[in-house]
TrEMBL record, chain A:
PROSITE patterns: ABC_TM1
PANTHER family: ABC TRANSPORTER PERMEASE PROTEIN MG189-RELATED-RELATED (PTHR43744), POLYGALACTURONAN_RHAMNOGALACTURONAN TRANSPORT SYSTEM PERMEASE PROTEIN YTCP (PTHR43744:SF9)
Residue ranges occupied by any ABC transmembrane type-1 domain in the UniProt entry: 78-279
Keywords for this protein: Cell membrane, Membrane, Transmembrane, Transmembrane helix, Transport
Compartments where found: Cell membrane
Protein name: ABC transporter permease
Membrane topology: Multi-pass membrane protein
Membrane-spanning segments: 20-38, 74-101, 113-132, 144-165, 186-205, 260-279
Family as reported in the entry's similarity comment: Belongs to the binding-protein-dependent transport system permease family.
Length: 294, 329
């Protein structure tokens, strides 16, 4: 009996060891390529063209970043990215919360119809071209508002917030109503402060989506002054791909584009990485909220 | 049935009644309630108007798939052409190429990418050191938050002749000449699949881990006393408890077989690998947005979504048979 238990312990130890080794390999596969991009962006053009390094560049230099920040375009793109993320998130969360609050009251007239109408939008959409034609006929092409207005509402988020509001005790609402407050007052001064955790989760995921979104720009924007960082990066990538394929320009020009591309990647990703620890705190609550919707 | 009158304590609720009343009176009551609830209605109605404009008008706009729409037309003035656009699709070689590529990449993602998050989730679950567990999770979720444009830029850097991949392969002696595999069409499906797995495998574990955390720990204790090995415990306790969530994910994956990642394709596709990289989404984009053939592009998109719905229903039927007639959806 003792022998059997000891054997089981040994097996278990072997299992743990192999498991941990495999997980370490897995994290290396994720971290090393990311690290390589960061150090490459701090590498001089010459060292970049030669290659031959993985963990530390042969020649450290800030020339790529100097080239990136000398271009006024990147400041403009950064400003657009920040503006569309901040404005987009605030309006999206408020709009979804407002609709969700209204629908959270079971006695609202027409509620069944409203919810059915919303659920249909979760499964059916007109797709790329009909949506494009709509945006065009609304005159939203090449305006900043195309980042904000079509992204105002997502019925998933409405349902999540609606379920959250429902779990708030009725007594809070009643006491406010006795004091003479209407539904708007109750919503703005009681429910919004109470539901900050749920709204923060939606805000963070929506914010990452806005920051990373590039299709909206690709489809609806041709005016370069409205390009966000993602679109600018895309243009740089396409440009350097064509150059290296058709051998346009000297090696020097090609390596500069490559360095600029790397530095832009880092600049574009930095806000996400900075926000990542905060984001992480909301993963679990986000998944729990997500589970409710299924 | 007696008349039960429920009056909301707040005074804004409707006067509900379960008894049958004449139609006129019901409509009148509806409007009285509606006016009393104007504050709540004023919160909901902007959302309804929004959905009408941004969701239902485009759904109506799908009708151009059955029309010959040109730039000078409005949605209603374009002439009807019936199923003509769909007939052209059938003989369109480039469309079928994009279908083959979409299915090829999707099946690779299904075959390789579906099990990896499951295995990874089990591996993370089996770790007993809290710190290390947290660390692995933190690292593995990170790539999910990078955009495809950023990842595309990174991939191009890693695959370039002086990039990371060539350094590693040269160092290991696996190749003698550096080469850029992004320019090699025969490797594109694997690049699309593996880069997607690299990005999403860690994130895919979250749902599985959430389900596993609800498994009753006494099962494992009992199994330990019976002398079951760790692998045996995984096979006989962990996996059976994940059956539902795995089938749900499988159904969603199968119904998404014809779906493709437009962001990924747009950033990784180039003139050399296009024949293997063009997927249905990017084909719709090219026909509609670049070439301006709105009707045809809409027809392609509509046809593909109809097939996807059929796939979803079939997959749900098949898995519910396997799951003792319990439907997952």
């Amino acid at each position: 009996m003792n022998l059997k238990a000891a054997k089981g312990d040994l097996d278990s130890k072997i299992f743990d060891t192999i498991n941990i080794i495999l997980l370490v390999v897995f994290t290396i596969i994720i971290v090393v390529p990311l690290w390589n991009v960061v150090v490459s962006s701090f590498s001089s053009g010459r060292a970049l063209a030669e290659g031959g390094f993985i963990f530390w560049p042969k020649e450290l230099s800030l020339e790529n970043y100097q080239a990136v920040f000398r271009d006024t375009g990147i400041w403009q793109a950064f400003f657009i990215s920040v503006a569309k993320t901040v404005i987009g998130v605030i309006t999206h969360v408020f709009f979804c919360a407002m609709v969700g609050y209204g629908l959270s009251k079971k006695y609202v007239r027409g509620r069944k119809f409203y919810v059915a109408m919303g659920v249909i939008t979760m499964f059916f959409s007109g797709g790329m071209i009909p949506t494009y034609l709509l945006i065009k006929s609304l005159g939203l092409l090449n305006t900043f508002w195309v980042y904000i207005i079509p992204a105002l509402l997502s019925f998933y988020d409405v349902i999540i917030l609606m379920n959250f509001f429902r779990n708030v005790p009725d007594s809070l609402e009643e006491s406010a109503k006795i004091d003479g407050g209407g539904d708007w007052r109750v919503f703005l001064s009681i429910f919004i402060p109470l539901s900050m955790p749920a709204m923060a989760t939606i805000a963070l995921f929506n914010g990452v989506g806005q920051w990373n979104d590039f299709m909206t720009t690709k489809l609806y924007i041709t005016d370069q002054s409205l390009y966000p960082l993602q679109m600018m990066l895309y243009e740089i990538i396409v440009q350097s791909q064509t150059q290296s394929m058709q051998n346009i320009g000297s090696v020097a020009i090609q390596t500069t584009t490559k360095g600029v591309q790397l530095a832009t990647i880092v600049v574009t990703t930095l806000p996400i990485v900075v926000m990542y620890p905060i984001l992480q705190r909301y993963f679990i609550s986000g998944m729990m909220l997500g589970a409710v919707k299924e | 049935m007696g008349k039960t009158v429920l009056v909301q304590p707040t005074g804004t609720g409707p006067v509900q009644s379960t008894g049958k009343k004449p139609r006129g009176q019901r409509i009148k009551e509806f409007f009285i309630d509606f006016r009393r609830q104007w504050e709540l209605q004023s919160m909901i109605l902007p959302g309804i108007i929004f959905m009408f404009i941004f969701c239902y008008i485009p759904i109506y706009g799908l009708s151009i798939a059955f029309k010959n729409y040109t730039v000078i037309d409005t949605l209603d003035s374009a002439p009807w052409v019936g199923l003509d656009n769909f007939k052209i699709i059938i003989s369109d070689k480039y469309f079928w190429d994009s279908v083959v590529n979409t299915l090829g990449i999707s099946f690779l993602k299904l075959a390789v990418g579906f099990v990896i998050p499951i295995i990874l989730a089990i591996m993370i679950y089996e770790v007993s050191m809290g710190r290390f567990k947290k660390f692995v999770q933190t690292i593995s979720y990170l790539p999910h938050f990078l955009s495809w444009i950023v990842l595309g830029g990174m991939l191009i850097t890693w695959f370039s002749t002086s990039g990371l991949l060539n350094e590693v392969l040269l160092g290991l002696g696996l190749i003698s000449q550096p080469q850029n595999i992004l320019l090699d069409p025969s490797k594109y499906w694997w690049i699309a699949t593996l880069s997607d797995i690299w990005k999403e495998a860690g994130w895919g574990t979250i749902l599985y881990l959430a389900v596993m955390s609800k498994i009753d720990p006494t099962y494992y204790e009992a199994a330990k006393i019976d002398g079951a090995s760790r692998l045996r415990q995984i096979w006989n306790i962990t996996l059976p408890n994940m059956k539902m969530i795995i089938s749900l994910n499988l159904i969603l994956t199968v119904s998404g077989l014809l779906g493709s990642n437009l962001d990924q394709t747009l950033v990784l596709m180039n003139s050399q690998n296009r024949e293997k990289a063009e997927v249905i989404n990017s084909y719709v984009y090219r026909m509609g947005m670049t070439q301006g053939d709105f009707s045809y592009a809409t027809a392609v998109g509509l046809g593909v979504s109809i097939i996807s719905v059929i796939l979803l229903v079939t997959a749900n039927k098949v898995t519910s048979k396997l799951n003792d007639n319990q439907s997952v959806l």
